[in-house]
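Practice problem: predict the structure.
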Amino acid sequence: MGLHPAIAAVRHGVRRALADREPGATVVVACSGGADSLALLAASVFEGRKAGLRVVGATVDHGLQPGSAEHAARVVAQMTGLGADETATARVQVDPAGLGVEAAARRARYAVLDQLRAHLHAELVLLGHTRDDQAETVLLGLARGSGGRSLAGMRRGFDHYRRPLLDVARADTVAACLADGIEFWEDPHNSDPGFARVRVRQRVLPVLEDELGPGIAATLARTADQVRADVEALDALAASAYAGLGGPDGLPLAGLGELLPALATRVLRLAALDAGALDAELFHVHVTALHRLAQGESGGEVQLPGLVTGFRDGGHLRFRPTGGPVAG
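Answer:
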């Protein structure tokens, strides 16, 4: 009997993600115990062995649900059973104040994955986001009015991270686990309508499928790929302009005024991030407010996620910690 198509699809995505790694390199696979990440880990072990790579499975216990420590221990055992060369687990403290549970958990998770990658001298960290996750991200971004960046969705790779399954449907990761005899965990948060992403998954996408026809998730994901190249080109131009304007200590308003709005807003976003604003929570509405402030169309200050405040200071736009001393 031939290889199950779902397993083949997952392995293909992983193979592409690892194609540029040399034998002996270490790769970390983030694994929650759900179907997506377990299918990713199984495929990474298979492809990693062929390529001579060391595959480390890592799970993060967010401590948000009863029995989370026991669940993390089960995931570690599963990762070992699937053939990971090494496993790791870490418990993090999630403080949702000012962020919300999802954003705070994400920030804590990436922080510990960064530490683990550095400790293991790993070249890559693989994440199990699927095509369905991409479609949900695009819809959520559109609903928030986040502009072109929201249409570009999640990046296939950034820093030391890669997402090999953005061309793979969630149904295929489930099918791959079932075909491989892998038991997977259904996170209760994934069915909790208190989370916007769950409402998109359970209510919005099914309605779109019914009204507009099947394949909406794939279409949204394909749109993200098409927009991504344009966004990255504009981002590169903005990075060059930002460096020329002097960086985060203060942006000259005259220089900002000479830029096209598409570049000026990106420069302001870069400055806000350098000042400590949270990338995952910095939306188009925040950057637009900064742009209006820089143009003199609004007065006062702009409060940004991450307890950062943007303000005008003479001929410059500057940033300070929210609640910090006002320049004068």
